[in-house]
From TrEMBL:
Protein name (Swiss-Prot/TrEMBL): V-type proton ATPase subunit C
Subunit organization: V-ATPase is a heteromultimeric enzyme composed of a peripheral catalytic V1 complex (components A to H) attached to an integral membrane V0 proton pore complex.
Record CDD domains: V-ATPase_C (cd14785)
Pfam family, one: V-ATPase_C
Annotated family: Belongs to the V-ATPase C subunit family.
GO-annotated molecular function: proton-transporting ATPase activity, rotational mechanism
This protein's UniProt keywords: Hydrogen ion transport, Ion transport, Transport
Gene Ontology CC terms, in alphabetical order: vacuolar proton-transporting V-type ATPase, V1 domain
Species of origin: Orbilia ellipsospora
Length: 387
């Protein structure tokens, strides 16, 4: 799994003040297995300072919501493919590209999110899209799960042993006595207890017709017997049978039951297959759209935080480190040390001269005011991963 560090630094980190030179300065801290991508950010309509501070907080919340929605879409794909990582990976693309390829060529979508509109309007559009996609994926997956559960229930009824499975395929009209006073009771008996049952069934309850037992079917675990008993004692027979660890099967004969069950199972199979395809398509396209929206949210966050942090006129360079978590962590630590002075009073040096972050109330206020309540860093940075 790759890690990413999206950041911005003022062009003033180099004497020339040129963005290209600033990018080269950032890139000079490269380590093996980590590389730096240029990241283009449009010049959005800034608005007032109060609006920017408010949007910083809104964007932080939206960032978290988008990440949670992406995780849900990913979980749905995992469930759809039963954890098959190869199939999952094939369907986790963004605009038909692997995420890293998409990020390398990222450009703001001017059609969906017109950057000439006020930032609050763009945030509102992104929020609506993310919420809609998340709800659609959850709803479709819930429908699929419901149908799948129903299908599994139907299949278990047909595939279990004679103590639990449906008896529609083994019962015949001849197995049932039709009388005003008599009825046929069905009892599933464990195979090891079959002889004992046959020698004692007449004493299980009163009013059992002598020598009326007959075997209907058997499987490796149970034998299914029919016993003729007076109707008024049928409930007592069931109770006594359970005490002996036999399984009464309270089933009324229906000559169409087997056909109905087969038809119901086939219908459930067809419905589950249809919803599987629909859920897959929605999760796949939803994942793509959600990740794309997420990157746009992060782009806005970098812009807003950069304006709040570095001020006007706009003069900062944005970039994104890509690599494994350990190399990215090393680059991050190096950059924070190199540019700790940008954090002002939030950073100082210990007795050995090492750069350290100050944990006091003023730093907390800075974080709350300029970073959407996140940890205060010497420059604008967002570390994230995408599984």
């Amino acid at each position: 799994m790759s890690s990413y560090l999206l950041l911005s630094l003022p062009s003033s980190i180099v004497k020339s003040g040129h963005k290209d030179d600033a990018f080269d300065a950032i890139n000079s801290h490269a380590v093996p297995d980590a590389r730096l991508l240029q990241f283009q950010i449009p010049d959005f309509k800034i608005g007032t300072l109060d609006t920017l501070v408010l949007q910083a907080d809104e964007l932080a919340k939206l960032d978290a919501s988008a990440e949670a929605a992406i995780a849900k879409a990913s979980d749905v794909l995992k469930a759809i493919f039963d954890g098959n990582e190869a199939r999952i990976s094939e369907n986790k693309h963004v605009n038909d590209k692997p995420f890293q390829t998409y990020l390398e060529s990222f450009a703001w979508n001017k059609v969906k999110y017109r950057f000439d509109r006020p930032i609050p309007d763009i945030v509102s559009i992104l929020r609506s899209e993310i919420q809609s996609l998340d709800e659609d994926i959850k709803s479709k997956y819930s429908s699929y799960q419901s149908v799948k559960t129903n299908l599994q229930t139907l299949q278990r009824r047909q595939q279990g042993n004679l103590s639990t499975r449906s008896l529609a395929s083994v019962l015949k009209p001849s197995h049932f006595l039709t009388s005003e006073y008599l009825t046929t009771a069905l009892i599933a008996v464990p195979k090891p207890n079959e002889k004992e049952f046959l020698s004692t069934y007449e004493t299980l309850s009163p009013m059992i017709v002598p020598r009326s037992v007959f075997k209907i079917s058997e499987d490796p675990e149970f034998a299914l017997f029919g016993i003729v008993v007076f109707k008024k004692h049928a409930a007592e027979l069931s109770h006594k049978a359970r005490e002996q660890r036999y399984i009464p099967r309270d089933v009324a004969y229906n000559e169409n039951a087997n056909d109905q069950e087969q038809a119901e199972t086939k219908s459930a199979e067809e419905q589950a297959e249809k919803l599987w395809g629909e859920t897959l398509r929605l999760a796949r396209t939803g994942y793509s759209d959600l990740v794309a929206a997420w990157v746009h949210v992060k782009t806005l966050r970098v812009f807003v935080e950069s304006v709040l942090r570095y001020g006007l006129p706009l003069d900062f360079v944005a970039a994104c480190w890509v690599g494994r978590s350990k190399p990215i962590a090393k680059v991050r630590e190096t950059l924070e040390t190199q540019y700790a002075h940008l954090g002002g009073n939030a950073y100082g040096r210990d007795k050995k001269g090492k750069i350290v972050r100050k944990d006091d109330a003023s730093v907390a206020e800075l974080a709350a005011g300029t970073m959407g309540g996140s940890e205060y860093t010497p420059f604008v940075e967002y570390y994230f991963e995408l599984a």
